[in-house]
Specification:
about 75% helix; mainly alpha; extended
Length: about 160
Protein backbone atom coordinates (compact mmCIF):
# COMPACT_ATOMS: atom_id res chain seq x y z
CA UNK A 1 0.00 0.00 0.00
CA UNK A 2 1.65 3.21 -1.22
CA UNK A 3 0.84 6.19 1.01
CA UNK A 4 1.58 8.67 -1.79
CA UNK A 5 -1.04 7.02 -4.01
CA UNK A 6 -3.55 7.05 -1.14
CA UNK A 7 -3.00 10.77 -0.58
CA UNK A 8 -3.36 11.51 -4.30
CA UNK A 9 -6.39 9.27 -4.87
CA UNK A 10 -8.23 9.77 -1.57
CA UNK A 11 -7.06 13.20 -0.38
CA UNK A 12 -10.27 14.99 -1.37
CA UNK A 13 -12.38 12.35 0.36
CA UNK A 14 -10.38 12.68 3.57
CA UNK A 15 -10.55 16.51 3.48
CA UNK A 16 -14.28 16.48 2.76
CA UNK A 17 -15.05 14.11 5.62
CA UNK A 18 -12.97 16.17 8.05
CA UNK A 19 -14.66 19.39 6.85
CA UNK A 20 -18.15 17.87 7.05
CA UNK A 21 -17.68 16.54 10.58
CA UNK A 22 -15.57 19.29 12.17
CA UNK A 23 -16.76 22.27 10.09
CA UNK A 24 -13.18 23.31 9.53
CA UNK A 25 -10.18 22.61 7.33
CA UNK A 26 -7.73 20.83 9.59
CA UNK A 27 -4.41 19.83 8.05
CA UNK A 28 -3.17 18.38 11.36
CA UNK A 29 -6.14 16.05 11.50
CA UNK A 30 -5.67 15.15 7.85
CA UNK A 31 -2.04 14.29 8.61
CA UNK A 32 -3.19 12.18 11.54
CA UNK A 33 -5.50 10.22 9.21
CA UNK A 34 -2.61 9.44 6.85
CA UNK A 35 -0.38 8.46 9.78
CA UNK A 36 -3.03 6.06 11.08
CA UNK A 37 -3.50 4.59 7.59
CA UNK A 38 0.25 4.08 7.29
CA UNK A 39 0.61 2.55 10.76
CA UNK A 40 -2.34 0.19 10.22
CA UNK A 41 -1.76 -0.68 6.57
CA UNK A 42 -0.69 -4.20 7.55
CA UNK A 43 -4.09 -4.71 9.22
CA UNK A 44 -6.06 -3.76 6.11
CA UNK A 45 -7.54 -6.81 4.40
CA UNK A 46 -7.63 -6.67 0.60
CA UNK A 47 -11.10 -8.21 0.55
CA UNK A 48 -12.54 -4.94 1.84
CA UNK A 49 -13.01 -1.70 -0.06
CA UNK A 50 -10.04 0.59 0.50
CA UNK A 51 -12.11 3.77 0.13
CA UNK A 52 -14.55 2.62 2.82
CA UNK A 53 -11.67 1.82 5.18
CA UNK A 54 -10.12 5.27 4.63
CA UNK A 55 -13.50 6.98 5.08
CA UNK A 56 -14.05 5.13 8.37
CA UNK A 57 -10.64 6.15 9.71
CA UNK A 58 -11.25 9.77 8.65
CA UNK A 59 -14.68 9.88 10.25
CA UNK A 60 -13.56 8.25 13.50
CA UNK A 61 -10.55 10.53 13.92
CA UNK A 62 -12.71 13.58 13.16
CA UNK A 63 -15.25 12.54 15.78
CA UNK A 64 -12.48 11.88 18.29
CA UNK A 65 -11.05 15.33 17.56
CA UNK A 66 -14.39 16.96 18.33
CA UNK A 67 -14.45 15.18 21.68
CA UNK A 68 -10.85 16.05 22.49
CA UNK A 69 -9.68 18.66 24.94
CA UNK A 70 -7.55 20.21 22.17
CA UNK A 71 -10.70 21.15 20.25
CA UNK A 72 -12.38 22.51 23.36
CA UNK A 73 -9.30 24.56 24.18
CA UNK A 74 -9.11 26.03 20.68
CA UNK A 75 -12.83 26.86 20.80
CA UNK A 76 -12.39 28.69 24.12
CA UNK A 77 -9.48 30.85 22.96
CA UNK A 78 -10.37 34.06 21.22
CA UNK A 79 -8.59 35.87 18.48
CA UNK A 80 -8.94 39.42 17.23
CA UNK A 81 -11.28 38.43 14.38
CA UNK A 82 -13.64 36.63 16.74
CA UNK A 83 -13.79 39.60 19.08
CA UNK A 84 -14.35 41.98 16.15
CA UNK A 85 -17.17 39.83 14.79
CA UNK A 86 -19.00 40.17 18.10
CA UNK A 87 -18.34 43.89 18.27
CA UNK A 88 -19.10 44.61 14.61
CA UNK A 89 -22.39 46.23 13.75
CA UNK A 90 -24.59 43.55 12.19
CA UNK A 91 -27.41 45.88 11.22
CA UNK A 92 -28.43 45.53 7.63
CA UNK A 93 -27.93 48.60 5.54
CA UNK A 94 -30.54 49.71 3.02
CA UNK A 95 -28.12 48.65 0.30
CA UNK A 96 -27.64 45.14 1.72
CA UNK A 97 -31.41 44.76 2.17
CA UNK A 98 -31.97 45.76 -1.45
CA UNK A 99 -29.34 43.30 -2.66
CA UNK A 100 -30.88 40.57 -0.53
CA UNK A 101 -34.36 41.26 -1.95
CA UNK A 102 -33.02 41.26 -5.52
CA UNK A 103 -31.29 37.91 -4.91
CA UNK A 104 -34.48 36.43 -3.46
CA UNK A 105 -36.48 37.73 -6.40
CA UNK A 106 -33.99 36.28 -8.91
CA UNK A 107 -34.05 32.91 -7.15
CA UNK A 108 -37.84 32.89 -7.03
CA UNK A 109 -38.08 33.76 -10.73
CA UNK A 110 -35.56 31.04 -11.61
CA UNK A 111 -37.52 28.45 -9.62
CA UNK A 112 -40.71 29.49 -11.42
CA UNK A 113 -38.99 28.92 -14.78
CA UNK A 114 -38.22 25.28 -13.94
CA UNK A 115 -40.22 22.43 -15.42
CA UNK A 116 -43.19 21.69 -13.11
CA UNK A 117 -41.78 18.33 -11.95
CA UNK A 118 -38.45 19.96 -11.04
CA UNK A 119 -40.12 22.94 -9.40
CA UNK A 120 -42.30 20.68 -7.25
CA UNK A 121 -39.34 18.65 -5.98
CA UNK A 122 -37.10 21.67 -5.29
CA UNK A 123 -39.90 23.43 -3.40
CA UNK A 124 -40.63 20.37 -1.26
CA UNK A 125 -36.97 19.70 -0.52
CA UNK A 126 -35.48 23.17 -0.13
CA UNK A 127 -38.44 25.27 1.02
CA UNK A 128 -40.52 22.77 3.00
CA UNK A 129 -37.45 20.78 4.19
CA UNK A 130 -39.01 17.41 3.36
CA UNK A 131 -36.91 14.26 3.13
CA UNK A 132 -36.52 12.19 -0.04
CA UNK A 133 -38.88 9.62 1.45
CA UNK A 134 -41.57 12.19 2.27
CA UNK A 135 -41.35 13.69 -1.22
CA UNK A 136 -41.45 10.24 -2.77
CA UNK A 137 -44.66 9.43 -0.92
CA UNK A 138 -46.24 12.79 -1.66
CA UNK A 139 -45.61 12.80 -5.41
CA UNK A 140 -45.95 9.02 -5.68
CA UNK A 141 -42.69 8.17 -7.41
CA UNK A 142 -39.52 6.25 -6.46
CA UNK A 143 -36.86 7.89 -4.28
CA UNK A 144 -34.36 7.57 -7.15
CA UNK A 145 -36.66 9.71 -9.31
CA UNK A 146 -36.88 12.31 -6.54
CA UNK A 147 -33.08 12.44 -6.28
CA UNK A 148 -32.70 12.67 -10.05
CA UNK A 149 -35.25 15.48 -10.35
CA UNK A 150 -33.67 17.36 -7.47
CA UNK A 151 -30.22 17.03 -9.03
CA UNK A 152 -31.48 18.24 -12.40
CA UNK A 153 -33.42 21.10 -10.81
CA UNK A 154 -30.31 22.27 -8.95
CA UNK A 155 -28.26 21.97 -12.10
CA UNK A 156 -30.72 24.14 -14.06
CA UNK A 157 -30.90 26.67 -11.22
CA UNK A 158 -27.12 26.89 -11.09
CA UNK A 159 -27.04 27.77 -14.80
CA UNK A 160 -29.85 30.32 -14.46
CA UNK A 161 -28.30 31.92 -11.38
CA UNK A 162 -24.61 31.77 -12.30
CA UNK A 163 -24.40 35.58 -12.49
CA UNK A 164 -26.00 35.97 -9.07
CA UNK A 165 -22.87 35.07 -7.13
Amino acid sequence: MDLKDIIINHGNTVRNIIKRITNEQNEDLEQEVYTKIWKNSDKYEEKGVLNAWIRTISANLSKDYLKSSQKKLSDNTTNDETVLSFVADHKETPESLMIKRERQKAISEAINKLKPKFKEVIMLYEIENKSYEEISQQIKCPIGTVKSRLYNAKKELAVMLENLI
